[in-house]
């Protein structure tokens, strides 16, 4: 029997989940099926080409339609119950003055997400996207004063042990221990297992996390930290210079952390590590993964370094204004959908891109073909007079 993925998915009945264990924490090895299916790709391309429009005239929307069709294994893809997950965590490195804002903003913004007032809250609501905030290691007790075992709507508390105050200062020691990192990865996988629907939108909150993302890019992308470092929440040019020098020092301190999981533990943060676990679980379940800006993409950089097939499941929502994001996208060899100069994070860009993913599916599913609508096709010569 031919068990190649292409065969398994021929006739447009792609396997929906991989059967293998996707992740072996003991070895750090990851398996993920190659979902590239030439037969399905051809069927999707034919479907698009027969729609009542000049060939390719819906531009990159057609690429997105094709991608979603491949992920969901269907020429009539339906996106269901999209889930925005905002991964939150604090960073010990903020002690070195690498952000324009104090760490307390992390927990205060988590409360703002829960109250419905943040950008990601209103944009998710506008687009019918469910929002979950995950405390992966915020320096705050969101359940203080509540009876033991109580929960809060929209919040999941999944701190690795010892992560109650956030990561350690990575300029003095690794941001997290390997056991904390593995717990965070596990938490990410578990939480995705518990979510409905077939699409995961990645958001994050963590003062100082552009620094972690910059260092992950520098180390795993082999780039100088200067091109990977930007203003984050709004540092001026001299402050960006100082931030760059701090990050250069941290990279030198953890010079041995070259393997993806070692780099993740060395540079952090808990929200990024939990996101990596979530990405693997979502990829394994063939959910559409909508990647937000600089920090969310850094989680994909780590995941991709471990298992490149992860990219087959990702749609990159936008190109962030944060310096370094374009290098991240280049490193991954991907193009983002929107370019709005956003530099917020939270998942705001992913929520904004969501209607385009839905539009791509509607085109693929519902547009008439030349044959069904009785519209004449292109002339053989394909010459336009004049
Ligand atoms: C009020 C406020 C809301 C935010 N929402 C997202 N971020 C963004 O800024 C932070 C990263 O930037 P840096 O590395 O410079 O600290 C992250 O929390 C990110 O999600 C915010 C930042 C602020 C100040
Ligand atoms: O692109 C992002 O995700 C971003 C940029 C700046 C600050 N926070 C997040």
TrEMBL record:
GO molecular function terms attached to this record: nicotinate-nucleotide-dimethylbenzimidazole phosphoribosyltransferase activity
Functional pathway: Nucleoside biosynthesis; alpha-ribazole biosynthesis; alpha-ribazole from 5,6-dimethylbenzimidazole: step 1/2
Enzyme Commission identifier(s): 2.4.2.21
Catalysis: reaction(s): 5,6-dimethylbenzimidazole + nicotinate beta-D-ribonucleotide = alpha-ribazole 5'-phosphate + nicotinate + H(+)
Organism superkingdom: Bacteria
InterPro entries named among the record's database cross-references: Nict_dMeBzImd_PRibTrfase, Nict_dMeBzImd_PRibTrfase_bact, Nict_dMeBzImd_PRibTrfase_N, Nict_dMeBzImd_PRibTrfase_sf
One of the GO BP terms on file: cobalamin biosynthetic process
Keywords: Cobalamin biosynthesis, Glycosyltransferase, Transferase
CDD domains per the UniProt record, alphabetical: DMB-PRT_CobT
Active-site residues, as the UniProt record annotates them: 346 (proton acceptor)
Annotated region described as Disordered, given as residue ranges: 159-181
Biased composition range(s): Polar residues: 168-181
Function: Catalyzes the synthesis of alpha-ribazole-5'-phosphate from nicotinate mononucleotide (NAMN) and 5,6-dimethylbenzimidazole (DMB).
Family of this protein: Belongs to the CobT family.
The protein's name: Nicotinate-nucleotide--dimethylbenzimidazole phosphoribosyltransferase
Organism: Rhodoferax aquaticus
């Amino acid at each position: 029997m031919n068990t190649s993925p292409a065969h398994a998915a021929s006739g447009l009945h792609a396997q929906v989940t991989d059967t293998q264990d996707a992740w072996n924490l003991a070895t750090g090895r990851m398996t993920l099926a190659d979902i590239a299916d030439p037969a399905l790709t051809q069927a999707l391309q034919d479907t698009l080409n027969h729609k009542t429009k000049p060939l390719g005239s819906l531009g990159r929307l057609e690429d997105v339609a094709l991608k979603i069709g491949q992920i969901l294994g269907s020429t009539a893809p339906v996106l269901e119950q999209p889930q925005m997950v905002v991964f939150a965590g604090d960073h010990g490195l903020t002690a070195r003055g690498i952000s324009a804002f104090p760490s307390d903003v992390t927990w205060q913004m988590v409360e703002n997400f829960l109250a419905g007032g943040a950008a990601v809250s209103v944009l998710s609501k506008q687009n019918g996207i469910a929002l979950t905030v995950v405390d992966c290691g915020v320096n705050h007790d969101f359940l203080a004063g509540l009876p033991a075992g109580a929960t809060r709507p929209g919040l999941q508390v999944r701190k690795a042990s010892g992560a109650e105050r956030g990561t350690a200062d990575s300029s003095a020691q690794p941001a997290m221990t390997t056991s904390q990192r593995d717990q965070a990865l596990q938490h990410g996988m578990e939480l995705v297992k518990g979510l409905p629907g077939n699409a995961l939108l990645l958001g994050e909150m963590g003062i100082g996390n552009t620094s972690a993302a910059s260092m992950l890019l520098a180390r795993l992308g082999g780039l100088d930290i200067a091109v990977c470092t930007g203003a984050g929440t709004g540092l001026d040019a001299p402050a960006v210079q100082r931030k760059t020098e701090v990050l250069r020092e941290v990279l030198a301190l953890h010079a041995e952390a070259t393997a993806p999981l070692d780099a993740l533990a060395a540079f952090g943060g808990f929200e990024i590590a939990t996101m990596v676990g979530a990405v693997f679980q979502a990829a394994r379940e063939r959910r559409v993964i909508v990647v937000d800006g600089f920090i969310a993409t850094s989680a994909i950089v780590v995941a991709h370094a471990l298992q490149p097939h992860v990219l087959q499941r990702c749609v990159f929502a936008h190109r962030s204004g944060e310096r370094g994001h374009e290098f991240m996208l280049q490193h991954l060899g991907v193009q983002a959908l929107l370019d709005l100069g956003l530099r917020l994070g939270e998942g705001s860009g992913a929520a904004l891109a969501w209607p385009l993913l839905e539009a791509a599916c509607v085109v693929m599913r519902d547009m008439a073909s030349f044959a069904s609508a009785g519209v004449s096709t292109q002339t053989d010569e394909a010459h336009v007079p004049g």
